[in-house]
């Protein structure tokens, strides 16, 4: 069966969405494993990394084939560029989920609830999940407004991350025995902050692609 450019583009779009939902699931499970100290769930995330890597390679190879077969220009070229960059950022998000899960498997450390609260861990995680919702809507519905909602939320993550060191220093002075806990949660907070940056990158790529398509349709009218 001969697959034309439009069908191949639709297939790439579906694969990109599959990668998005898979990587969101990986971070959700990794965070749950961290909060509940569930090593079995952490192992599941680690094992699923193979599937993430396989899908990453498939998308990359399919994009290369599209470029070779159809020599895309204008909107089609921007689409391929956006998919490649989004895929790269999603794979890095999955890497952070993998890293969080490795913490759980390799270290038998439970985090005290008061540390999670003082470091605004729940707020940081819920903000990330809202950012994921924004880019999911933006990707599915080609909604630039949803993509732009990410930028303000990323500033929340930056602020929590910036405040974390001083809070940890204060907590250790009160109770030096929690140093292992603080080092662990500090590592996860840093990963969350990087995930926020990657989601922001994805939002920018979605806007880059959608704006080009909107301009194309305006020219046709």
From TrEMBL:
The keyword Repressor does not apply. The keyword Transport applies. InterPro entries: PhoU (IPR028366), PhoU-like_sf (IPR038078), PhoU_dom (IPR026022). It is found in: Cytoplasm. GO terms for cellular component: cytoplasm. Residues 18-103, 122-206 form the PhoU domain. Its main location: cytoplasm. Keywords: Cytoplasm, Phosphate transport, Transport. It comes from the Bacteria. Gene3D superfamilies: Phosphate transport system protein phou homolog 2, domain 2 (1.20.58.220). GO terms for biological process: intracellular phosphate ion homeostasis; negative regulation of phosphate metabolic process; phosphate ion transport. Homodimer. Belongs to the PhoU family. Plays a role in the regulation of phosphate uptake. This is Phosphate-specific transport system accessory protein PhoU.
């Amino acid at each position: 069966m001969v697959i034309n450019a439009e069908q191949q583009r639709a297939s790439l779009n579906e694969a990109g969405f599959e990668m998005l939902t898979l990587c969101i699931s990986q971070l959700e499970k990794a965070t749950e494993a961290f909060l509940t100290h569930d090593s079995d769930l952490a192992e599941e995330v680690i094992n699923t990394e193979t599937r993430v890597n396989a899908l990453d390679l498939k998308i990359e190879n399919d994009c290369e084939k599209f470029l070779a077969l159809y020599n895309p220009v204008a909107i089609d070229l921007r689409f391929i560029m956006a998919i490649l960059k989004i895929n790269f950022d999603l794979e890095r998000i999955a890497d952070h989920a993998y890293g969080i899960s490795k913490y759980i498997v390799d270290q038998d450390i439970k985090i005290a609830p008061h540390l999670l609260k003082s470091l605004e861990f729940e707020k940081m995680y819920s903000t990330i999940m809202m950012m994921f919702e924004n880019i999911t809507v933006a990707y599915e519905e080609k909604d630039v407004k949803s993509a732009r909602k990410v930028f303000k939320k990323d500033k929340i993550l930056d602020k929590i991350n910036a405040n974390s060191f001083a809070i940890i220093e204060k907590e250790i002075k009160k109770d030096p025995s929690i140093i292992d806990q603080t080092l662990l949660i500090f590592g996860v907070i840093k990963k969350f902050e990087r995930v926020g940056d990657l989601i922001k990158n994805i939002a920018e790529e979605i806007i880059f692609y959608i704006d080009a398509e909107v301009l194309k349709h305006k020219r046709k009218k």
